[in-house]
């Protein structure tokens, strides 16, 4: 016998995977993964930011963030600088190339989201966000 919430759990997982794949495909031409996009976007909004703060905001563990930052730095998108106040801390910001790419990525992600949520009213989207937040609060 199926449990009451089996279908919700299955469908949520399935749709989350499809949404991630959809975004991956939209970002592929720019040679950026959704995970890299997340990091670039947070740095764009919060720079200069420490790797620890970035890990917290992205809800990723520190080693994962460090690996993503290493890749972004090799692509010349991110700059690492030692904090003048606390030399143990590394601060991150976007390079000029990273800033330009992030602007393009913002437009690309916005267009992908418009396609993903086509047919939804503003009220639908607000309700959806409220429901997702409630689920997240229940889990935490």
Could you explain how this protein is built, in words?
Keywords: DNA-binding. Residues 1-137 form the HTH marR-type domain. Pfam families: MarR. This is MarR family transcriptional regulator. This protein has two domains: 1-30; 31-106, Orthogonal Bundle (Arc Repressor Mutant, subunit A), CATH 1.10.10. The protein is 68% helix and 9% strand. It has helices spanning 6-27, 34-46, 51-58, 62-74, 96-116, 122-139, and strands spanning 49-50, 78-82, 90-94. The chain has a three-stranded antiparallel beta sheet with strand order 1-3-2. Strand 2 (78-82) and strand 3 (90-94) form a beta hairpin.
Topology:
Layout: H1 6-27, H2 34-46, E1 49-50, H3 51-58, H4 62-74, E2 78-82, E3 90-94, H5 96-116, H6 122-139
Antiparallel strand pairs: 1-3, 2-3
Helix pairs in contact: 1-5, 2-4, 2-5, 3-4
